[in-house]
Amino acid sequence: MLILSRKEGESIKIGDNITVEIISIRGGTVKIGINAPANIDIFRKELYDSIKNENIIASNVNSDIISNLNDMFNKDKK
Q1: Which residues on neighbouring strands pair with residue 25, listed in sequence order?
Q2: Residues 12, 4 contacting (CB under 8 angstroms)
Q3: Are residues 33 and 47 in the same domain?
Q4: Burial, 22: exposed, middle or buried (Cβ in 10 Å; 0-12, 13-18, 19+)?
Q5: What pLDDT, in 10s, does the model give residues 3-51?
Q6: Predicted confidence band of residue 78 (pLDDT cuts 50, 70, 90)
Q7: Pairing between strand 29-35 and 11-14?
Q8: C-alpha Rg value of the chain to the nearest Å
Q9: How far apart are CA 72 and CA 66, in angstroms?
Q10: Whole-model pTM?
Q11: Do residues 36 and 47 both lie within one domain?
Q12: Is 10 in contact with 25 (CB distance < 8 Å)?
């Protein structure tokens, strides 16, 4: 992990196309701005973790359900 100290108005670069700028510091809160290409998804970590967990739960579908759905679709094709 790289640890940097930055002051308000300063920024860091990640690669050639991502800039993270310190917008303001008030009390225990730091407001940052992230400039990145539109094809790069940016999420708060807690939201990213929530999405990841929901995807894991959604992928744990009972194999009997999939088999029944497969039978239903194949039945309609006959």
Answers
A1: 30
A2: yes
A3: no
A4: middle
A5: 999 999 999 999 999 999 999 999 999 999 999 999 999 999 999 999 9
A6: low
A7: unpaired
A8: 22
A9: 10
A10: 0.65
A11: no
A12: no
